[in-house]
Records
---
Amino acid sequence: MTTDAPGTTILDTDDCLDLLRAGEVGRVAVTIADHPDIFPINYVVDRGSVVFRTDEGTKLAASLLGRGVAFEVDGYDADEGVAWSVVLKGAAVEIEQMQQFFDALDLPLFPWHAGRKQHFVRIEPTEITGRRFHVVGPDAWTTED
Amino acid sequence: MDDGGLKAMSASDVVWTSSLDADTCWRLLRRERIGRIAFVRDGRPWLVPVNHLVDEGTIAVRTDASSALGALDDGAEVVFEVDDSDPQAKTGWSVVVHGRVVPIDDPVQQQALNARGLQPWGPGPKDRQRRIVPDSVTGKAISRHRKQSDGTFLPYMPPD
């Protein structure tokens, strides 16, 4: 871990993977005909990569295979006033080889909602970045009503 | 709000998805403190967590001019997302806003947003205020009921 701006800790890859492993829900960003889109997904970490399942025929399935994607998890500890985020960039590949497929079936991963899930997708990371920082002035927060 | 979305029943659970109406989406957008913005840069998707404030039907954020988000052209297409989930119940919801970023140049508006608490959570100058003007706002929820011993279904509740 290194620190750059005051109050911010740049997380190393191991810290990022620990935070990823502790989570269950993240968001994947894709491009669809050069337009951005975001999908929340539940996932597991396997061999240093992010694995999740998608429905065949969905917008998400059509937009991510073989493409560059970004994946994000974040969290906020209100007691400590600390927020963190981890962003992973890489290519999304379908897990096709049988051995890999059966390995993936052993992962503690099942979709939260009810569609028929046919694709196991792995995001092979080319870059993992994370940071943790003390929240500046959270008490000043107000909402519009 | 049940839109007849995907439904499935296992021995113990019935699970379904619902669309959230616009009022519910905006209430959730106001309630959440952290969201994520996705945009396209050099043909690739980027995803950045931000804190935000709902202001007059738009999403106001503060960024560094030097950051990837801050460097987006005015009018660039972006997607903003908030969500929450219950890992034990395996339920959750998300709201997704498709829109475009526009600058907030009026000092009066800037000060009003600062006074309402549009403070950047992270350190750094974060001196550029921008807003996302929505083209569409959609929300989705995953619900789950669990079968009781008497055969009735109840929302999943964690054990005491």
---
Amino acid sequence: VWGTVRANPSEHELERELEAHLSMAEEALRRQGHSPREAARLARLRFDTVPRALDALHEQRGLPWLGRFSLDLTLGARRLRKSWPLTVIGGLAMTLAIAIAAGGFSFVRALSGGPVPLDEGDRVVALQAWSVAARRAQNPAPEDFVRWREELRSVDDVGAFRTVSRALVVAGDTPLPGSEDDVAGVVSVAEMTAAGFRLARVPPLLGRALVEADERAGAEPVVVIGYDAWRVPFSGDPQIVGRQVRLDGVVHTVVGVMPECFAFPINHRYWVPLRADSAVRSWLEGPEILAFGRLAPGATLESAQGELETLGLATRPARSDAQAEAQLHPRISPYTQAFLSLEEGWSGLIMLLFTMLLLPPCANIAILVYARTVVRQEEFAVRAALGASRGRIVVQLFVEMLLLSTAAAFVALLLVQGVLTRAQIGLSQSPGATPFWMDLGISVGSAFYVAGLATLAGAIAGIVPAIQATGSLMQGGLRSLGGSGGGLRLGRVWSAMIVTQIALAMLILPSAVNLGWGFLRPVLSGPGFAAEEYATARVQFFGPTALFAERQAELIRLLQAEGGIKAIAISQSVPGVERSRLAVELEQTESAADDDGRAAANELSVTPNRVGLGFFDALEVPLLAGRTFDAGDFEPGRNSVVVNRAFAEQIASGQRVPLGQRIRDRFVSGVSPAAWHEIVGVVADFPANDETPRLYLPMTPGQTTPITLIVGANPGATAIAGRLREIARSADPALVVDEIRSLDALYLDQRAQSGAAVSALTVVTLSVLLLSAAGMYALMSFTVNQRRREIGIRSALGAPPVRLLAGTFRRPLGQLSVGAVFGLLAAYVLGAVLPIEELGGREVPGALLAAPMFMLVVAALAVAGPARRALRVIPTEALRDGG
Amino acid sequence: MSNKDADRTQFLRGTLDLMILQSLAALGPMHGYAIAARLEQASAGALLPNMGTLYPGLMRLEQRGLVRGQWGTTENNRQARFYSITAAGRRQLASEKKSWDQMVAIIETLFGEPT
């Protein structure tokens, strides 16, 4: 292409060159004695006219290969249509691999940051105290921040922020018109120095931004709100500036509204000053604080890093992890990199891994393409004999696969776009969680990456087998015409690849079945109780801690007084959607160690939840053994726990119920080890379709915030959901209730996630199975083609069909069996190693044995076609062709 | 076009690039007309490529990086585009010559056999 572009003179230059040629010819003819008129005529006769020569040049000047490429495309499309099974299987596998890689690319790109979308965003930086040992940042000491702000010359507008949660009450003394509910709920607030607004260079929409005077001790509390916050809780009130709101009970004056696009520093809608008097004292232990700034004109990251290191960090008070402290050093980085979970260099490695996902499906398709060349051998041999170079044939196969991979890439892009759009919507619904600069959409970079993947896939699936196939073809030439299989052989590498593929299918099938059943079973069986009758809500108390227990009791009393309430329960997390995991150890007892000569399992992972008194009765969780919590269990020093059936079965030794057994937290922080807890009861799994091992601990009222309130109502959850806030507020305005949802809806969300996981798993497993079946088909097909003559002779000698097939397929079936046995062994090992239940799966009895049976059916289907062909070989024709 | 002309064209298509490269390697930079005249002279008048054959050939060689074209002035003070062979062109010529020699040897052997 470059050659064509470089050697592409203009039309005028071409004409000039041709005219010069004719003039020189005329001159030579005149010198030979011809008249000028005759010389001109003869010159045109000998060398042609300029327009005709230009026509010939135009053909060469364009892109001659473009015509050939277009022909290859047409031929490729025709061939793909003809070999539709290969097209469908290969296309599906390529689509899947490209979609996974492209989705991964978009996530990595989103996580990898880039400049923050502000004016000169590439010069906005984060300043951190970096712990080399812990590989993470620690909050800068207040004195460090002050020195950075006052002494750094290479960084301007040095500021800091931290994110806090505050209960927002918008009405204050003068309720907004039309606002029935003055509690806006708990909001995420940025406590930020005024420098943040200067650095962002975004002017406020109304009023003013924060200024340094707001940070001073004793200054009037003020708040700046974002556009969304102004539109919704404040109903877009044009007189908002000067109004008063309460944040955690403290009256703040609204001094400004920021425009819609503004969400600095992460994704905030409320900003209050980071005040030196209250915040600095708690800097080291409080919420994470990040310092930021803008590189001064002429400064670079390197020069700023140098200056920071010269300034150094203040000595900190001795802490437990002395080694980590000793290695703290100041670090400056592009702003978005401070929020990365990916370390430098990792993104490249992850991208490489995603790209490598293409290799297995493409290698599979390459096998199929190679196997198919046996059918096209005659076509290639004729083309080679007619002068087509090996390169031309290779290019044609490449274009054919490129066509397939491009179509696959297009479908993959559409799929990824759909998934990413949903993901982006999901992320945007959790405010504060997604940085405002993170965009999950398909970018130009992603499109280029996908184009690269399509080309790579086309090259692997097209060029590699084409080079292999045409190598023997070029040597064999026309001799291979009419022969049975000719010079083409399915070499050891290809056979090994097919065998490996069978092994891989055998390996993943049992685990996929177990995982799929684990995801599917809860969806099919349901939670075991009327979840739609229960509403859950998060309850937070923003008053004095000592009063929380009393207010909690008051809330429950008020709820009990409501009509139609059938059950009230309190827990730390919503039952069935707890997220945390706890590593626990069992106390070693002699009896446990004696049982069948082994020590009881001593390191277990369990999902903990703290529950209030009467939790199990309220939710009608059946008691299987022992007892549930009584009032005494909530007294200090009483360490009782209740476990669910799944956990009891895991720790039970023999047939005994583990009542009285003691367990404790393995990784408790602090000097003294965690206290032992005694199991006093075993309850049924709740919800019934979730067999996660669970551990219930007593939750003393007032000790934990936020808590989850579960209310069962007779007409259904929606009836009570609307009243919950009102009832809580009547107990105490500082009691804030939010995240009100029915249990049914929460479980539905979980099911949707399981559904997506099952779909993904099914697609991956089906692709592997399809490719395995295609590999087997290719191997058998090859065998029949290569042994056609032998089959003909055996058939002529009267061999019965069964022996004929056994003789033909003995070797390839042996190879496949080797793959199957290896795969089965590997699957057994994987089953023993993989924590299938922790991954959400569930053991299906006999899955390991069912896998080879299933593969046998797949193999029978794949072999059926070639076997039928083998039986239809007519001896006379086979002998004539092979002779 | 007569059969004879058609044969000649066919012959030209296969060997023109090789002949141009050889002429440029032997005689140095030349313009299109000089190359045509050289081919006519070397073939004793048997070959005289027209512009519709010669210039696409030159352009093809230039696109492949085997020759390089530059505007210059002839001895008669006329502007013309001079072509010179590149290093890649010399390598290509050496390779083609080798194949050609082998082919000639085969043909000579075959034609030397008693009929």
